[in-house]
Amino acid sequence: MPKMRLENIRRNQEAMRMFELPEAVSAVGTSRADRNKRPAPTPGLKKEKRVKRTDVLPRRTSSRLANIAPDSTPSRRTVEPVADPEQIRRTRRNGTLSLKETSNGHGNDDRFSQLMEELATYVPDKARVKDLEDLSDDDSATIVKKEPEVDEKTVKKEAKKEVKEEEKDNNTNVKKEEADDMVKKEETESKDTKVGIRKYFSRSSATNATTPTAKTPDTKAKAGSAAKDTTKASLPKSEDADNKPMSSSNSMGPSLRRQVQALQIRGPWPTVKVCQGRIYCMAIHENRDKILVCGGDVDGNLGFWDLDESQADDYEPDVEEEPNIYNYKAHSRTLSSMQYSPTEPNKLFSTSYDGSVRYLDLVQQKFIESYVVAPDASDHLGSVSITSSGQQLWFADVDGGVTLKDIRTPKDEMVFRKVLHEKKVGCVNVNPKYDNLIVTSSLDRTMKIWDIRTFGQYKEDEAIVEMASFDHRLSVTSAMWSPDGASIASTSYDDNVRIFNNFEPSLPDFKEIPEPVRIPHNNQTGRWVTMLRAVWSHQFNWFSIGNMNKSVDIYSRGTGDLMANLYDRRNLTTVPAVNAWHPNRVLLASGMANGKMVIWR
């Protein structure tokens, strides 16, 4: 047998040499090796190697080793309990924590301290306007400027001079306008066809801009076509067109709809690993000039990404050059939600499953405890929502309750806690216009609107009646008010996103929630992907939500049509489940389960 096997091998080798197969096989092998080369590692945090956890068993003891006679009564022996390393890791950290105490060793702490000093000097535009108004009101009553006395003759002479100068300016302007009209007339006469085509396209683009149901050219944007259309007359003034901002300061430049459709992943680092674990929540500081993105993961880490916009999109960093990433561990368990204070952007509030609410003070550069649950209460704190005054916090828990906390009180005190649902409350959100109205979503498949002014009418053991309720087929993961407080976007596991428009819950004749605009959307995330939630833009009439096809969908509020579908097959390797909008810019940040982030701008 061995001789026959060797003879077969020799015969096969001669046949391969005859057909020159070794060269072909070697060529194929090299191309396959080139094709299977590993991609370059993602910049940012390095993945830590997980140490295999081994349970430490108690030491075996016997009566013989303890010199105890068989017939005698055994003496009491105390066995020291073995500390569970997982339990130690999940223990909540008490008190105020500095940056050095919470640093994970990723990033330069001194550089992050300088960054916080720069952001601490930022004053929001609204506060600037308010300060100027208050200053003018106060000074007008106290300060009186003495003007120098001027004769009537001099005043008349100066008035005559001003009139003559205005007449000269008007004459020159009229002559310039006439000359411009003549030039335009000659151009139109020589280029009639081009002018006619230009007029046609300008007229058609104007009509397209006024229609609220404009679709993107992307073929994947057909998901929003199943949504119900509402007439333009039935929409409020703020919803007249989806490409109009809520403030007129950003009306210059291209339409906002086109800006959203043009969003791409740009920059020298398309994807950056900011957090060690799966990203669960995100927030962006409202400074327009300095973009700071923050993400919280399931291990309680806060990862900060400082975007350097001075670098061009085609900038090629060096091999050893890394993005500005900073990582701190202020919580011991999953960081469930975070939000900047609307009145004090120097404070970043965060809730965690370790039973604490903290805020990062950029001025003091410390993580300060704002609230700690009682020892007999559940420590799973969910989403956080801050009132427009910035003095009170709402957060939910797994027992179906919501808690109102005043940040000016000690950390072990609260205003009240009310049980509003039978099961876990996944999201609580306060109306940005009316602080007395909140909306909650729960695992009991309901979304409810509450007026907290009626909570005092009920006893402790008495069930509170909601203002209005809407039943879903499956559990509701989120329900959030729009920035103007006139709409609600809810996300549910029944694979639908619902938009509730055209109602004013503050009116006394408010009785029920109107019929929503229903958008079919796959919300089945499974175990290893963070729950999908519809996140409103801070100033505009649209919201974004992650797509299970590794993309981000942006929907219009008025009609529910798909404005844009953002995707990047090269850089997006997982589902961008968590999203956050910049408060003052058309900029979107997306976080993924592998701890990486991308920026759409």
Question: How are the SSEs placed, and which strands pair?
Answer:
Elements: H1 2-18, H2 21-35, H3 85-89, E1 97-98, H4 99-102, H5 109-120, H6 125-142, H7 152-190, H8 192-210, H9 256-261, E2 272-273, E3 279-284, E4 291-297, E5 301-307, E6 324-329, E7 335-340, E8 347-352, E9 356-361, E10 366-372, E11 381-386, E12 392-397, E13 401-406, E14 416-419, E15 425-430, E16 437-442, E17 446-451, E18 468-471, E19 476-481, E20 488-492, E21 496-500, E22 517-520, E23 535-536, E24 542-547, E25 551-556, E26 562-567, E27 578-581, E28 588-591, E29 596-600
Antiparallel strand pairs: 1-10, 2-29, 3-4, 4-5, 5-6, 7-8, 8-9, 9-10, 11-12, 12-13, 13-14, 15-16, 16-17, 17-18, 19-20, 20-21, 21-22, 23-24, 24-25, 25-26, 27-28, 28-29
Give the amount of beta strand, in percent: 25-35%
Strand order of the largest sheet: 1-10-9-8-7
pLDDT averaged over residues: 76
- N→C terminal distance: 70 Å
Please tally the β strands and state the result: 29
> Any idea what the shape is?
globular
Structural class from helices and strands?
alpha+beta
- Quickly count the helices: 9
Largest sheet: 5 strands, antiparallel
Uncertain segments = 24-33, 127-151, 187-253
Helical residue percent? Answer: 10-25%
What Rg, in angstroms, do the CA atoms define? Answer: 32 Å
Keywords: DNA damage, DNA-binding, Repeat, WD repeat
Function: DNA-binding protein that binds to both single- and double-stranded DNA. Binds preferentially to UV-damaged DNA. May be involved in DNA-metabolic processes.
Biased composition (Basic and acidic residues): 146-195
GO cellular component, one term: nucleus
